[in-house]
Design a protein that fits this description.
Pfam families: TerD. This is Tellurium resistance protein TerZ. The protein has about 190 residues and is mainly beta. It has one domain: sav2460 like domains (Lipoxygenase-1, Sandwich), CATH 2.60.60.30. About 5% of the residues lie in helices and about 45% in strands. It has one helix and twelve strands.
Amino acid sequence: MVIALSPGQTMSLTGRGGRPTRVRMGLGWSSRRRFGLGPGRVDLDASALLYSAGGSLVDQVWFGQLASKDGSVRHTGDNTTGRGQGDLESIRVDLSALPAEVTTLVFTVNSYTGQKFSRIDDASCRLVDETYGEEELGSFNLNASGQHTALIMAKLSRAEQGWTMTAIGSTAGGQTYQNLLTVVADHL
């Protein structure tokens, strides 16, 4: 059963097959039609930021670096048009291969071309268990229409009993993950 998360809500990562070791964070969106000109091109970019327990940025995965240094986190590629169905950008995480120092992964989305989220109709992220098939574990509606150009989507946190996902949904400004680091720090 898929859990539809609200900002601040946390869920344990457990699927039908048990605790997943490989997950995928998928990001989907569509652009608003403006003044009869058809859909506008909005280039949203998903990023994963890997943090230590002390809050230090250990590594990052984004369109400029498609894999973490150790290969445990991989971006499937940059969709620059917003065209397509389903997950337009995805980040795959092998939880069992993450370095022990990584305790938190924060997923962000930003408008690389600087368009405001008011131009986005449907935006969502979802976490899929790839260990035991393609079971969707949780989803989070990102329809936070407004004058911001970025969102802190969600985070995965390592705990003794396993991994959890927390929906964040905090708005921010910036065209790449580097512009979001101060805001992300508030959610570690």
